[in-house]
């Protein structure tokens, strides 16, 4: 059956649009691939340098792949500095800090989302206003407080504030809690549950994606935190990984191979945790903020 002139025109226009869409898609993919290479290159450089001998790590012109794959740098990491101690301190700080952040932030968020009280909106607005306060403003007063309490040069100033809540995570969890139907809580009240039981046994399990999202973000924040350990920790045996890695940089030399090996070992927990909870992390980010 021969197409009419109008049908041929429509078909030609359709093919033109289809071709334009394909070209745009190819350009988008090329842009994404280019950006991915830019962002992943420093990670690859760190990873491959960790397997290079010291002379090859400093070679010029630089070479991405090592000529000789050497595991000696990973052994020297534990010989040059007490790396195992740094790892232990980071696990303690990140673990307890994340636990405190999730518990305190979720409890406060539940109060703001569900419990009716006079001035609740005002208090929430006041809480959100603290997000606009630069940490440099409170850095010195908070340091003076911890100093007078006698907790400087210990892990306490890095852990205890986490149990007092985090404004950003409170906001994220509050938004998620508001998406949960109130009928669920009303049914629990009729069954004799109190407010804390509803929060602990009902709301938290139903908010698994949001809780995992906050857990991942919080853990990464504590694990990579550099400023607070630098301010409060003075003794090498109390160092976390973030400032412990600096010990590979001496006054006269820099141990590039061991430093890159230490950085690679430092990244392992983050990679494992992120890919383990990636599905819930994406789901939590996508669903938060659906209800204002």
UniProtKB/TrEMBL annotation:
The keyword Transport appears for this protein: yes
Pfam family, one: BPD_transp_1
UniProt keyword Glycosyltransferase, yes or no: no
Annotated ABC transmembrane type-1 domain residues: 87-277
UniProt-listed SUPFAM superfamilies: MetI-like
Top-level taxon of origin: Bacteria
A GO BP entry: transmembrane transport
Transmembrane segments: 26-48, 91-110, 122-146, 158-177, 198-223, 255-275
Gene Ontology, cellular component aspect: plasma membrane
Keywords: Cell membrane, Membrane, Transmembrane, Transmembrane helix, Transport
Membrane-topology descriptor: Multi-pass membrane protein
Compartment list: Cell membrane
Matches recorded under PANTHER family: ABC TRANSPORTER PERMEASE PROTEIN MG189-RELATED, ABC TRANSPORTER PERMEASE PROTEIN MG189-RELATED-RELATED
Record family assignment: Belongs to the binding-protein-dependent transport system permease family.
Protein name, per record: Carbohydrate ABC transporter membrane protein 2, CUT1 family
Native species: Alkalibacterium pelagium
